[in-house]
Design goal:
3 helices, membrane, transmembrane helix
C-alpha cells in the first residue's frame, strides 16, 4: 500500500525537477499534478481496501475498479506532463 505514494510520488517529482524544472509555469501544470496525485491516491486506497477485505476473510469483485481508475488517472497525468515537456522543449528551441 505504501509503495504507490513512495515510488510514484518520489520518482515523478524527481523527474520533474531533473528534466523539466521550468514546467511549473505552464497553465496546465496544476491539472496534471492533480490528475496524477488523484491516481496515486486511488491506487493507495484500493490497495488499503483490498487488505482490509482480505483480513476480514471476504472478497469483492469491485476492487479491480480502483486499480483501473487509478491507473487511468496516473496515465492521463503522465501523458499531459509529456505533452507539456514536449511543448517546453519546442518553445525553448
Amino acid at each position: 500500500m505504501f509503495l504507490y505514494p513512495l515510488i510514484g510520488g518520489t520518482l515523478f517529482y524527481f523527474a520533474i525537477n531533473g528534466f523539466a524544472n521550468k514546467i511549473s509555469r505552464f497553465s496546465g501544470y496544476r491539472l496534471t499534478c492533480n490528475l496524477y496525485n488523484s491516481g496515486i491516491a486511488t491506487l493507495t486506497f484500493g490497495s488499503f481496501l483490498k487488505g482490509v477485505i482480505q483480513i476480514a476473510g471476504a472478497s469483492s469483485p469491485y476492487i479491480v475498479f480502483y486499480y483501473v481508475v487509478g491507473s487511468l488517472f496516473v496515465a492521463a497525468g503522465l501523458i499531459l506532463m509529456l505533452v507539456m515537456v514536449a511543448n517546453q522543449k519546442r518553445v525553448n528551441i
